[in-house]
Design brief:
The protein is mostly helical. Helices cover 61% and strands 6% of the residues. It has 2 domains: 180 residues, Orthogonal Bundle (Lysozyme), CATH 1.10.530; 185 residues, Lysozyme (Orthogonal Bundle). The protein has a 3-stranded antiparallel β-sheet. Strands 4-5-6 form a 3-stranded antiparallel β-sheet. Helix 3 packs across helix 22, helix 13 crosses helix 16 and helix 13 packs across helix 17.
Length: 383
């Protein structure tokens, strides 16, 4: 692939700490907008799909995202003749979360000093405000938040014209704003484990969907079928590595209380841990599947889910034939090899859906489009 020229800063990905807040922001945006697999007319007057993804904005950036993620005809999506699946909706939502985090950051100096709870609120305001920039009506709220006066920031937000136009969204966002960020979170959020390279980042949303399909979700701690204490979507509480302890601290949770079941998580916290776990298992899969980055997210997510449900530090020899067939883009044969594995006999439900998804594979045109887009994201990260 040819090298990618650097883009303007406004189009690039944010720093690593802003990327960390993408999962939290997707949760808040979906709470505000809802979700639709098919195109609809949004309350803001534009044609949308998924979670308010703007189909009337035909910028090169959005056209590339739609082409790469959906591999579907834009015109058919727009007219409602074709719809998206949840993996595609989640991927577009992650790109939009990044977009509105950057938009909020353009307006708010020291934006990265906030924890994800507050960053996601301002990103949601930018999303529902539907302007290229947050206006002066938000200045009092921003000033209060920058002074860590979160209750006052919420009250100023309630006085805004935006709040009168978006009463339900405003009610939820201001309640979350009042919670703010405990001072301790400011430094700990910077220490969270770094995100994946850009290509694997693209597949985090798809992987979270597949992992939750396999494991389910629980706000409180439970004993997983693999024998460890877990919370959320199979997040391992028995693994007391420094990395996991930092992650739990970053979401402002008390590990001991979580473990004993004395405290539970909200959906925003669960989604944040899930995204970090998706990153973890994509990396783990990549250690065994050397060609992982050549696959579309549909296939990468399957191998990450196998690593997740396999619960070993590395995919073993039982998966060698599956990996070999997939590396040759022989999707049906790869799925059949997966069905023959010992893992499949132990994880029948997960195996059934993962093998079906692996059979779908990556269309040849889609592969090249995905690779081209991933290369462009590498350029953006390096710029």
């Amino acid at each position: 692939l040819p090298p990618v020229a650097p883009r303007a800063a406004s189009a690039s990905w944010g720093p690593l700490d802003s990327l960390t807040c993408v999962p939290a922001t997707t949760t808040v945006m979906e709470r505000s907008e809802g979700r639709s697999r098919c195109a609809y007319d949004s309350r803001l007057g534009y044609r949308a799909i998924g979670v308010g993804y703007n189909l009337d904005d035909k910028s090169d950036e959005r056209m590339r995202e739609i082409s790469t993620i959906t591999q579907t005809d834009y015109g058919k999506l727009y007219c409602g003749e074709e719809c998206l699946n949840d993996v595609q909706v989640n991927a577009l939502l992650a790109f939009d979360a990044r977009r509105y985090l950057l938009r909020a950051k353009e307006r708010i100096e020291n934006f990265n000093s906030f924890c994800c709870n507050v960053q996601s609120i301002f990103a949601d305001v930018a999303f529902t405000h539907a302007k290229s920039r947050l206006g002066e009506q938000f200045s009092p709220s921003i000033d209060r938040a920058l002074s860590s006066q979160y209750k006052e920031a919420a009250e100023e937000l309630r006085r805004s014209e935006w709040c009168r136009e978006h009463e339900k969204v405003c009610a939820a966002d201001t309640r979350a704003m009042e919670e703010g960020c405990p001072t301790a979170s400011m430094s700990s959020s910077r220490k969270a484990g770094s995100w994946l390279p850009a290509n694997s980042l693209t597949c985090v949303p798809a992987t979270t969907t597949v992992m939750e399909r396999s494991e389910g979700r629980s706000r409180c701690a439970y004993d997983s079928r693999l024998g460890f204490r877990a919370i959320g979507v199979g997040y391992n509480l028995d693994d007391k590595s420094d990395e996991r302890m930092r992650e739990i601290a970053t979401i402002l949770a008390d590990y001991e209380k979580l473990y004993r079941g004395e405290a539970c998580l909200n959906d925003l916290q669960i989604n944040t841990l899930l995204a970090l776990d998706a990153r973890r298992y994509l990396l783990r899969a990549g250690e065994s599947v050397k060609t992982l980055d050549n696959f579309c997210c549909n296939v990468q997510a399957v191998f990450a889910d196998v690593a997740f449900t396999h619960a070993k530090t590395r995919l073993g020899a039982q998966f060698d034939q599956t990996i070999q067939k997939a590396s040759s883009f022989q999707w049906r044969e790869a799925a059949e090899e997966l069905r023959q594995s010992k893992w499949c006999r132990k994880n029948e439900a997960a195996c059934k859906v993962d093998a079906q998804q692996l059979e779908e594979g990556c269309a040849s045109v889609g592969d090249s489009a995905v690779l081209a887009f991933l290369d462009s994201l590498r350029g953006l990260m390096a710029a």
